[in-house]
Amino acid sequence: MAGGHAGVLVFFVTFLAFPFYWMLMTTFRTTIDLHDVNKNPFLFNEPPTLEHLKVLFEDTQYLQWLINTGAVGIAVVLITLLLAVPAGYALARMTGPWAQTLGIAIFLTYLVPPTILFIPFARIIAVLGLQDSLWSLVLVYPSFTVPFCTWLLMGFFKAIPRDLEEAAMIDGLSRFGAFIKVVMPISIAGMLTAVIFAFTLVTQEFVYGVTFITSASSYTVSVGVPTFLVRGDVYFWGSMMGACLIASVPIAIIYNFFVARFVAGFTMGAIK
User: Belongs to which family (predicted)?
Assistant: First the structure.
């Protein structure tokens, strides 16, 4: 049995780590090594090179794109938490036949394709004079992060027994005070999940970014990389993989750190 569990674990670890391994190998392999089909694609057949990273940082504005992505991501995460936390809590504590229906309806708005919404959003952005501004993305991105995170947080809040809040209110706290001093500390893991998911959704979004931003210096990573590293039918694979690796590794590390806390059982630990 232990051997079977180890085999399954090895399989999934290999499966999940392989994309990072492939990005790493592609980033540091020479162009000739990458294109020669007669050479082993999983190993360095020639000495590693920094040529692709040099192209990425010297011939593009990748560093600025990273800064733009981080700035937009942080702003959107703050807006998302400000709106999704009270909304998720209200839906979790709401009673009656419409509570579940309302929660599902909010989540369904997240499923509306961006290709349908970007035309009316473009009109709103034009009226507000935010064309080619990162503020346009800060305004638009919460349209899909808030519904998703509200639905996500609603599940976390439902897992917290009402008895904890009632006990705090008996001790003299108001409903808001019980939420701040009792529910919020227990829900830290849930809010971290919302932060990670919201930031991830922002970093991988393409349609709104390419629609509302036209200046290269204002691009985010998800728009700048394919725009400047795909020229006609020429793909700068090494530079593209380097860009993806640099952008994805920090998120992957943070996400895995949080998953460990989630598996430990944040709710049961808090109740005890």
Answer: Belongs to the binding-protein-dependent transport system permease family.
